[in-house]
C-alpha cells in the first residue's frame, strides 16, 4: 500500500510539471483544416432513446477538430487521482488475499500505464510509433475495401447507398484474421509477443507463461492467445489462470480492433488514424492494467517460473494454407458478430418497447424527460444503464454533463458486448450527444476489451478445451476475471482523461 501512496504522490508531481509537455501538440487534436464538416447528420437511435440536440450538426466531428478547450487543471488532477484510488480500493475490497497483494507490482503497472498515456499525448518518439502503427491499420482498411469492392461493387459507395455496416465493417474482420494467421505462420507475432512478455516478466514479476498470454492478447483473441501457452495451462497456479482470463477480458483482438477503427472513423482517413492510435493505446495500456487487477484479486503465493518459451506450433502447413485457415476463422467470426448484433439489437428494441409502454402507463416517461432535460424521453435500457453507472463515471473523471451517456456505454458493454457499445458510441458521436471531446476519447478506452458476461462462457469453453482439468477453476474465476478486466479498462480511461485535462 505504501508503494501505491508513493505512486499517487509521484503522479501529482508529474502533472504539476505537465505544462512543460504542452509545447508538443496533443496527438488527440486534429486541425480544423483537416476535417470537412458535413451540413447535416442523421441521428441513428432506433434502439436508443437519446434525443438528438437541435444543433447537433456533426458536433462530434467538430469537437474532434478543435484544440483542447480545457487545459490541465488541479481539479482534473484530483478527480483523476480520486478515480485511480477508487478503482484500486475496489480491487482491494474484492481481493481474496489482501495481506499478500503485491503492491510493488501494482505500483509499477500503474506507472507503465501513465507512461504510455503521456507518451501517446506528449512524447514525440512514442507518438510517431503509434502513428505509424495507426497508419498500418488504416491502410489495412483500404486493402479490405479493395476486396469488398470487387465483390460488392457500388454497394461499397457510402455516398450513394449510405454506410452499410455489413459491407463496411465485417469484411475487415475476415481480412485481418487472414493477415494475422499469415504473420503467425511467419513467426512475426511470436517475436513481438516474446519481447513484450520479457518486459512484463522483468518489470512486473510475473511468470513467463502468463506474460506470454497477456502479451498475446494484444494481438490475438481471448481463446487464441492461450494456444501459445497450451503446454503450461494444466500446471498454472490459480493466480496465473486468473491473469490468463483477465488478459482476454481487458484487451481486444486485432481483427475487431480494425473493425472498430472503421466503425468510429467512417470514411474519413484523419478520424480513422486518430481512433486507430487511441484504440491501439487502449489495448496496450490494458495489458499492465490486467496484471495489476488480477494480481490484486488473487495474489500469487507460489514460486513462479519466469522462463519464456513461445509455442512453435504453426497455423497451416504453408503460406496459402495459413491464409486459408485465417480466412475461414475470420468468416466464422464475422458471421458470429453479425448474427449476434442482429439478435441483440432486436432484443434491445423489444425490451425498450415493452418498458417504454410501462413508462407511458405509469407516467414515468414524462418524469424521465423532465429530469434529463429531454435527453431521454422514455424509460429504456439506455436510460437505466446510463444513470446506474453515472456515479462511477463521475468518480473516474468523465465530464459531468456526459456521465450518463458514458455510463450507458459501459453498461451496454457489460450486459451485451463491446461491439454494441462501440456502435452506440459511433451513433452518439454522430448525434452530437457529447459535450466534450474528452468524453468520446475516455469512452473509447472504457469500451476496450471483451469484458462482458458472454465472454465468461467463451473462455470456459475455449480455454477449457485446451485444459479440461481446469474447467472448474475457469468457471469459478469467470466473474472475478470480468471484474478485473472492467477495472483495467476503467483505469486506462481514468489515466488518459486525467492527462487530457
UniProtKB/TrEMBL annotation:
Keywords: Cell membrane, Membrane, Signal, Transmembrane, Transmembrane helix. The chain crosses the membrane at residues 72-94, 106-125, 161-186, 241-263, 275-298, 333-355, 379-398, 440-467, 479-500. It holds the Pfam family Nucleos_tra2_N. The keyword Membrane applies. GO terms for cellular component: plasma membrane. It is a multi-pass membrane protein. Residues 1-22 form the signal peptide. GO terms for molecular function: nucleoside transmembrane transporter activity; symporter activity. It is found in: Cell membrane. Its main location: membrane. Residues 82-155 form the Concentrative nucleoside transporter N-terminal domain. Coiled coil: none annotated. It comes from the Bacteria. Belongs to the concentrative nucleoside transporter (CNT) (TC 2.A.41) family. Residues 278-497 form the Concentrative nucleoside transporter C-terminal domain. Residues 166-265 form the Nucleoside transporter/FeoB GTPase Gate domain. This is Na+ dependent nucleoside transporter. The lineage of its organism: Bacteria, Pseudomonadati, Bacteroidota, Bacteroidia, Marinilabiliales. PANTHER family: SODIUM/NUCLEOSIDE COTRANSPORTER, SOLUTE CARRIER FAMILY 28 MEMBER 3.
